[in-house]
Amino acid sequence: MTYANAGLVEPSLNALQHIPGDDGPPVVGLTFRLLANPKGEVERLAARHGPVYRSRAFGLRTISLLGPDANEFVLFDRQKLFSSGEGWNPFLGRLFPRGLMLLDFDEHRLHRKALSVAFKTEPMRSYLNGLNAGLARGVALWLGRPGPMLFYPAIKQLTLDLAATSFFGRDLGPDAEPLKRAFIDMVAASVTPIRIALPGTAMARGVAGRRFMVEFLGRESEARRQGDGEDLFTHLCQASTDEGRLLSVEEIIDHMSFLMMAAHDTLTSSFTSFVWFLCENPAWQTRLREEIVALNLPRGAPLPYERLDELPLTEMAFKEALRLIPPVPAIPRRAVRETEFHGFRIPAGTRVSVNPIFTHHMPEVWPEPEKFDPLRFSEENSRGRHKFAFVPYGGGAHMCLGLHFAYMQAKCFAYHLLGAAEAAVAPGYRPDWRLWPIPKPRDGLPLTLQALG
Ligand code: HEM
Question: Which of 374, 409, 368 has its CA nearest to residue 270?
Fold first, then answer.
């Protein structure tokens, strides 16, 4: 069962008074401070109150638990103390109800197993075909336009087009544009501060988007049950649970909408920071290009699935971008039973949060934390590091199901982009990152792509 209706009550301030912290100003709490500078605010609160502290933002009182041990305690969750559904529900429940991250414990395990068929080797190989074609086309299109480009909106559009292929597999015809629109509106609504669907608001557009999505996916799913497509949607329509039943149309709708959301902004954000760090560190850009050239494939040829492992530096550089700017900066949960961490009692019903972005910048774990140094992820340098020090994909039962998909797409992206072009920003340029809810450069990251001779 999910714990959305499990009768958990919010503990009173009194019940949490023993945990040091700061409610901030009445009504708004620390919402605006967190929105303005989420990393700085968490670091400020940690410096003042320590690695376990209480705060209030977005109308919710939360206990933050910081650092690798806290990540392990909450995410690995040996004792099944923390509900992911209850943690994410205030943000995602309305538009992405019953997505995988919104389910808990036994029910979650059942659905996760059913969904994992779509991430096995054969389906992945087939998604890579689509990614190769789409990325080669996308990069060629960028290179065909003279002058500087705004990278963030360009990669956002390309990621959406690529998802349409790997998720749906065929030309969607007149449904393609409304589907993309519906999806963008749903994602925007899931993070809007105004949670009521008043006319003209992002929430109203999100609710309309979900209506379209439900209608479209419902209409298509019956046909795909019998189809022989190799796309993710077809895999889901044919997936069955351990109990031997096919997923229902409603379940498929909820899983598909959630998967698109989980994949889209995370990939857009991480590819943007990846490219930025390669522009800021041209020597690394050159090293990755050398690794790509050493594959000895004809220029623009598809990157074969079997050769993904031959790009270890590319993977390390992508990991380093994920460390510095994790696309999911904080991960919420809710305690379903009373527990204790570092001597602090945490009552049942308490909202807790772990913080990848804080952990990824702890100088005691990551020396010179602001420096871009992909070699931190070499086998030798990773030895002895806490297993929960690097958590861009979370960890434990809810660890990102699309992690291998993300690495595959990142390598394919780097292969096509760096194999064809050199990316550079204007001298002295530094992007201003808006970190919450998903990191993006406020100015869209202007850069130039110079075709390689
Ligand atoms: C760099 C890219 C990505 C990052 C950083 C990322 C990050 C995350 C994180 C932090 C979680 C766990 C949240 C929690 O524990 O509450 C998660 C879960 C998930 N992600 Fe990703 N993600 C990425 C790409 C993808 C892609 C490409 C897909 C699908 C194709 C995907 C599908 C999912 C799913 C289904 C879950 C829920 C897993 C569960 O609850 O069992 N993600 N992701």
Answer: 409
| 103-106, long-range: CB < 8 A, 24+ apart | 103/2, 104/1, 104/2, 104/3, 105/1, 105/80
Does 3 score more than 50 pLDDT? no
Residue spans of the domains in the chain: they are: 13-451
Give the residue, out of 115, 398, 400, 407, with the most ligand 1 atoms within 8 A of its beta carbon, to mutate for a pocket test: 400
- Burial label for 122, CB within 10 Å (0-12, 13-18, 19+), is exposed
Place of tokens 């190989």: 125
430: left (phi over 0), alpha (psi -120 to 50) or beta: beta
Distance from C-alpha of 27 to C-alpha of 453, rounded to nearest angstrom? 59
Helix axes 176-190, 249-280, angle to 10 degrees: 80
Q: First CA to last CA across the chain, in angstroms?
A: 58
Longest dimension (CA), the chain: 68
pLDDT digits (tens, 9 = 90+) for 46-69: 999 999 999 998 888 999 999 999
CATH number of 13-451: 1.10.630.10
On the question of a cis peptide bond just before residue 326, with omega within 30 degrees of 0, the verdict is no
Work out the number of other CB atoms within 10 angstroms of the CB of residue 8.
18
**Is the separation of the CB atoms in 24 and 56 below 8 Å?**
yes
Please state, in angstroms and rounded to a whole number, the distance separating the CA atoms of residues 210 and 139: 31
- The first and second tokens of residue 136, run together, are 């080669």
pLDDT score for 5? 47
Atom 30 (ligand 1): residue with closest C-alpha?
Answer: 402
Three-state SS across 80-126? CCEEHHHHHHHHHCCCCCCCHHHCCHHHHHHHHHHHHHHHCHHHHHH
Q: What is the pLDDT of residues 408-421, one digit of tens each?
A: 999 999 999 999 99
**Does pTM top 0.90 for this prediction?**
yes
Residue 101 alpha carbon to ligand 1 centre in Å: 8
* Rounded distance from Cα 263 to ligand 1 centre (Å): 7
Rounded Cα distance, 261 and 101, in Å: 11
Is the CB of residue 84 below 6 angstroms from any atom belonging to ligand 1? Answer: yes
C-beta neighbour count of 428 within 10 angstroms: 5
Q: Is 327 in the pocket of ligand 1 (CB under 6 A)?
A: yes
